[in-house]
Amino acid sequence: MFERLFKGTGSLTKLIFRQQRFKILVWLAGLVTVTLACASSYPNVYQDVPSKMAFAMTMDNPAMVAMLGPGYETEDYLASFGTLFAHECLLFTTIVAGIMSILQVVNVTRNDEENERIELIRALPVGRLAYLSGGMVVMFTTNVLLALLTGISLALLGIDGIDTEGAFLYGAILGATGLIFGIITALLAQLAETSRKTAILSFSVLIAAYLIRGIGDVSNETFSFFSPLGWAARAQVFVDNYWWPILLAAALSMIIAFATFYLNSIRDMGAGFLPERKGKKQASPILQTIFGLVFRLQRTSILAWTIGIFALSASFGAVLGDLETYFADIEFMQAFISNEAGESITDQFVTLLIAIMSLIALIPSVSVVLKLKGEENKNLTENIYSRAVSRTRLLANYYLLAVIVNFIMQLMIVLGLWSVGQLVMEEAIAFGSTFTSAFAYLPAMWAVIGLAGLFVGTLPRASGLVWLYVIYCFIVIYLSEVLDFPQWMNNLSVFEHVPEYPIEELNFAAMAVLTFIATVMAICGMIAYNHRDITG
């Protein structure tokens, strides 16, 4: 019986891997490269005992424990660079590995089911569970490759304190965390009816795991053991090298996998155990407009991003009170923020923070534009074009919604930082300067939106490449100083040309040029979209 259920798994695994091979390559190359670049920078930044002591004292702060997890003994920080690297980078890298697996599993489960690929596959002589098992094998293989490549690469660096066992444990933690969140996503795909709801539930679990770990690390360690991220933070990499988090993650993954396969075997195609709420019988007047329809299709995700951006900004605002002391002692952060005369370290940090938050806030705006290509792939745009609606009008409404989302997200950044900062700072940051600093990034964000529209119009199949540019902009903002990028590489990022107010004066000429570039790309995208074939 089991053989019949899984018949054809090998062939489908090859098919799924072939479909996903480019995305897998990009994820693995990006994660391993950034990990190695960060690890290599620590010997140059922490060159003496005082800087390591300052690091140890700062990481003992409850706010930093909540953010990065429990640390090591002071002697461990002084003994090697591995502990410095692991404490500051491990937790956030595991989160990225979890995101990788979530997106991969959503794509090979609910997304393929919505696009009727699985129904087509099941018409062939294959088992009922073959496609799901093939997707799980690909996800498992991806995380094993991540673990091995990371471990081997770190071990070959030859950095003091990064030993072979610790390097492979570091990689194994990334792979195990990615595996468990991938399996959880597969389970949630059986509960939800759509890929969007599956993604929302999966990312909610990831965020909840981070919050539970943070609460447990600060107040009650017992809570941390209910979070896979809490297990990863207790592996004591490069010191004690505990492997029990890997075994625990593997055991839990197997249990969830059994439940996932069982639920998949008893549910109907296209159905879920958490049915969608029934809509209204009659559409509202707003929904009968093109903009109303475009907004309604993405209302839930926009609301989720709005809440998430505000919460993230508020959490950063909560640590503003200790910034002067924190950055005065931490030499590593001075690589990111230059101590210019006449400017407080708080202002310098806030400008960097707003730049990073603006990049994160760019994600929902770009997603709005790329949604048009997703609707096209599902043949849903044909229903709109069967009426008196032009392509220019439809794409323009997607642009308009993306711009509105830009304004909303930047406002959430300002309100989150400023409102919480008022409560924790003796000299609170001014609302006006925070507002100006955040909204100065709008032209750069519009340029990326225009780039997304240009991809949709000219290279629709490669429209996902816009995310590579977003990632590149993040690397330029966050790591260009540490990685010593030449200026021409920095200039490739539109965010490099945004004035860092209030440290710098507003450069209206640069902002006007960015707005012009955004407009040109948006118009070119419309022209190209009007002249190409609509595919499904």
TrEMBL record:
It comes from the Bacteria. Signal peptide: none annotated. It comes from Thermoactinomyces mirandus. The lineage of its organism: Bacteria, Bacillati, Bacillota, Bacilli, Bacillales. The chain crosses the membrane at residues 84-108, 129-156, 168-191, 198-216, 242-263, 302-321, 349-370, 396-418, 438-459, 466-488, 508-529. This is ABC transporter permease. Keywords: Membrane, Transmembrane, Transmembrane helix.
